[in-house]
């Protein structure tokens, strides 16, 4: 994610077109195509629901990964499911790509428009269909905001667990597309683990349903394929989510460590002791200083690293778990420990962590937020390697981790107005991702591949694996019209990226042992 | 990789030969779940040479294990470090393998409180029908790189490929487990189970049969102790309780035992998966309810159509688990739109149609 700045990454637009070379996006051809598509859509939608003139489509040119921008051919904002189905059928008949979009908060360019495609805004599907306190489920339309579900469930003492940082704005449809996480994943899981059923349309506009309010469905379990598929397999209209009883109490331990290694070891020791905290977050010294400066949370500025360890449940459970966790942290070299005495102080402990990104924004004109996962035990090693990379690329990096599940968010600080800093930042980011793979991890923990990490997918997966994924897409969408060009890089792209790596010597791990 | 690499090469040779001659292969581990699904056919393809734990790091909560490893062996290694497979997979005997566990996708009594097997699959290495070795997912908790093909393998009944190695999320064994038995009729039990689930009651498993509700509470000692005092009924001795729940898990309870004579008379064992808040289901025969109301076993001689439509009305589906005659199909029929996707997926992984043909559906 980029905070701001017109940074251009080597995302070749031609990639978007790979599946249909016959179409030209030269201005005249594009205008003719646009007229054709608009006239087909005008038979389905009122004129106010179709945007294509001049500036009308500009608000849709990117998601929260603002470095990538593309005006769509047309934007449609349907008001009924029948209209969505008809739009899909019409686009399918005309061989027009369709890119579904929710709130546009995605961090990897998953909702980046297609130059010759229709952006399908699902903003008008924002109703909570039903909250069932007995079954502990909510049925919501795709455009309902993540936090609105918990708000609707609150009167029953229930809530929806996944809490991505954008939860005020992001929609459940987008969460399903990205398999969004949050700070409580270790204990409560990702979106997949909290969604029971999704209903929507295929690329052809045919009704389709995955999962069930029952514990399982007959046949293959297609729900885990659809969740996290970044809008490439189906358009999701309605989601049934699982609601959990809201924990009676939550308390947070804030522990300081003299070295990053001892903080990393303490994380492992907490888990080894059989404790699954509700949240387990680590911030390095520079991040702590930036956050403290921003929110005055009372962080220990002498610590090399700070751990936030949260426990939730009944008062008995919390007391028992906090006591165990403190013993483990002390035994593993914590230099200072504070326990939140009330809800206000707990939120104060979290305030710096939750404001890590804006706090970093004050340190530098721009920052790039990376997202990868590594095995927990490699955290200290990864931090040391990132420290070395700071020297190599002459850029600073601050670090926040979802330490409990090994998910890193290094923030690389740079100035987008300096072309060489931009270039170094990009290489720095790529090396973090490729180091994550080499340490046994993955190039994206929760932000998705989108367009941002297409190159990294070439490193993480073999040609046969990418071909199999592409075949999975074809099983759902044989014409390849739903969000084409995202997530799975083409063979050609990977070949080019491979050549670049030999040339530049950036990629160190072309042939990872994979078994 | 060593021995596993050689075994993998041999499996690949068999797959390529089968592909070329379009011969069906029945992927096999310990054979403990032969009764499950439609009747297996094809030349057996034994994966048990692929055995052993590849890596286990208790502090990572991840174990990576070759598919032919016996499940009981894996569980004992985890137990030594105070960890477990929280979804409590059925064993059906000592020789069942980890690969078979994933392919069948079955979970035991704890399913309602911890989630299905697929939630604990982090990564899979497999051979597809072209003999290509493919790895999806990985060994970390949070991973959204590409489609989650590894979790598609859970419950796929081996129709997409040969599972060679899996990475699984493991969890600590909880500090306290205690079991209660309460007298309650079906309707009251279902209501009470729904209510408890909405209140954060530390319920780890439930089983209702013939007016008796068994409840297993698990979690922090103090929380379990407090919940126990409010629930009524009488408590089972720890050893008796553990044995009772493993008999449920492996279907050794008397309810599940169908003699050959009973099977010949047309009695079948059905598994109905329904929303746990579905009202009582009325069918001829006898019932055993698990998962807070989400899994309702029926021993019944009623026609398949009657049982399947009852499950469908309740918002779920019915699986014919044990029967002398599986012609009605082990699994509920798919909607046409879903079957098309199934066929294309099968085609993409296994174009020659060699893996476990018919085991899931005759068309696949």
Mean pLDDT of chain A: 90
Distance, first to last CA of chain A = 32 Å
Q: What best-fitting shape of chain B do the alpha-carbon axes yield?
A: globular
Radius of gyration of chain A: 23 Å
- Using only C-alpha atoms, the radius of gyration of chain B works out to 21 Å
Q: How many DSSP E strands of chain A?
A: 19
Can you describe this structure in just a few lines?
Chain A is built from 18 helices and 19 strands. Chain A is of the alpha+beta class and 515 residues long. In chain A, helix 9 crosses helix 11 and helix 14 runs antiparallel to helix 15.
Question: What would you note in describing this structure?
Answer:
The complex is a heterodimer of chains A (515) and B (364). Chain A has 515 residues and is of the alpha+beta class. Helices cover 37% and strands 19% of the residues of chain A. Chain A has helices spanning 13-16, 27-42, 81-94, 146-153, 172-178, 185-188, 191-194, 223-226, 260-272, 285-295, 315-331, 343-354, 356-361, 379-393, 419-438, 454-460, 463-476, 491-504; strands spanning 50-51, 74-76, 98-101, 118-121, 128-132, 137-141, 158-159, 195-201, 207-211, 235-242, 244-245, 249-257, 279-284, 305-313, 334-339, 366-369, 372-373, 396-402, 407-414. In chain B, 30% of the residues lie in helices and 25% in strands. The longest helix of chain B has 20 residues, at 2-21. The chains are: A alpha+beta (515), B alpha+beta (364). Chains A and B meet through strand 9, helix 9, helix 11, helix 16 and helix 17 of A and helix 1, strand 7, helix 5, strand 9 and helix 6 of B.
Keywords:
heterodimer, A: 515 residues, alpha+beta, eight-stranded antiparallel β-sheet, five-stranded antiparallel β-sheet, 18 helices, globular, disordered N terminus, B: 364 residues
Structural topology:
The complex is a heterodimer of chains A (515) and B (364).
Chain A: H1 13-16, H2 27-42, E1 50-51, E2 74-76, H3 81-94, E3 98-101, E4 118-121, E5 128-132, E6 137-141, H4 146-153, E7 158-159, H5 172-178, H6 185-188, H7 191-194, E8 195-201, E9 207-211, H8 223-226, E10 235-242, E11 244-245, E12 249-257, H9 260-272, E13 279-284, H10 285-295, E14 305-313, H11 315-331, E15 334-339, H12 343-354, H13 356-361, E16 366-369, E17 372-373, H14 379-393, E18 396-402, E19 407-414, H15 419-438, H16 454-460, H17 463-476, H18 491-504
Parallel strand pairs in A: 2-4, 3-4
Antiparallel strand pairs in A: 1-2, 5-6, 6-10, 7-11, 8-9, 8-10, 12-14, 12-15, 13-14, 13-18, 16-19, 17-19, 18-19
Helix pairs in contact in A: 9-11, 9-14, 14-15, 16-18
Chain B: H1 2-21, E1 25-28, E2 43-46, E3 53-57, E4 62-66, H2 71-80, E5 83-84, H3 98-104, H4 111-114, E6 121-127, E7 133-137, H5 149-152, E8 162-169, E9 171-172, E10 176-183, H6 186-197, E11 203-209, E12 212-219, H7 221-231, E13 234-235, H8 238-249, H9 260-264, E14 268-273, E15 286-290, E16 295-300, H10 304-313, E17 317-322, H11 336-349
Parallel strand pairs in B: 1-2
Antiparallel strand pairs in B: 3-4, 4-8, 5-9, 6-7, 6-8, 10-12, 10-13, 11-12, 11-15, 14-16, 14-17, 15-16
